[in-house]
Amino acid sequence: QELIRQGEALKRSEQMVDKMDQDLKTSQRHINSIKSVWGGLVNYFKAKPPESKPEQNGSPEYYANSRLKEAMVSSKEQESKYQESHPNLRKLDNSDNDFSKADLVSSVERDSYPKNQQLRAYHQKIDTNLDEMSSGLSRLKSLALGLQTEIEEQDDMLDRLTRKVETLDINIKNTDKRVRQL
């Protein structure tokens, strides 16, 4: 969730830099008008730039990548299952569930376990624990892949934002020189 919040902040920053660039272009037009009569005439006959929104580079709102959203949703779904099955988080009245699970074991599975009841119970418990570990690892893998994709997208956004800021900085310095020359 923090990564998504940071992505939203990056998107807002990029939009602000785009607006600053648009404002700088408007100030360049005003400087040309002030600097000389010829600049004023050129600006008068030149088509006025449309008062449109600056380039958005996509949609105005930030959306996290779908892989991360899917991983977060499935993780939240599995969280409740995990809390029900975790020994320290499990409710005390879940003791009947162990019997119902044992009753549902098919005859094929019973044949694969040893004949000794205690050994069979341990094997079943180990299998259950391994299944829980497998689902937990699967959840972690999908979260990690989602995070990787989101980080790569935000890295691209940072590169784009850095280029825009560098260009804007150069343009601001040039505009400042022109204003000082007036």
TrEMBL record:
It comes from the Eukaryota. GO terms for molecular function: SNAP receptor activity; syntaxin binding. One of its GO terms (biological process) is synaptic vesicle fusion to presynaptic active zone membrane. Residues 144-178 form a coiled coil. One of its GO terms (cellular component) is SNARE complex. Residues 90-101 have a biased composition (Basic and acidic residues). It is a peripheral membrane protein. Residues 71-101 are annotated as: Disordered. It is found in: Cell projection, Cilium membrane; Cytoplasmic vesicle, Autophagosome membrane. PROSITE patterns: T_SNARE. InterPro entries: T_SNARE_dom. Its main location: membrane. Transmembrane segments: none annotated. Residues 1-34, 120-182 form the T-SNARE coiled-coil homology domain. Belongs to the SNAP-25 family. Forms a SNARE complex, composed of VAMP8, SNAP29 and STX17, involved in fusion of autophagosome with lysosome. Interacts with multiple syntaxins including STX6. Interacts with EIPR1. Interacts with STX17; this interaction is increased in the absence of TMEM39A. SNAREs, soluble N-ethylmaleimide-sensitive factor-attachment protein receptors, are essential proteins for fusion of cellular membranes. SNAREs localized on opposing membranes assemble to form a trans-SNARE complex, an extended, parallel four alpha-helical bundle that drives membrane fusion. SNAP29 is a SNARE involved in autophagy through the direct control of autophagosome membrane fusion with the lysososome membrane. Also plays a role in ciliogenesis by regulating membrane fusions. PANTHER family: SYNAPTOSOMAL ASSOCIATED PROTEIN (PTHR19305), SYNAPTOSOMAL-ASSOCIATED PROTEIN 29 (PTHR19305:SF9). This is Synaptosomal-associated protein 29. It comes from Grallaria varia (variegated antpitta).
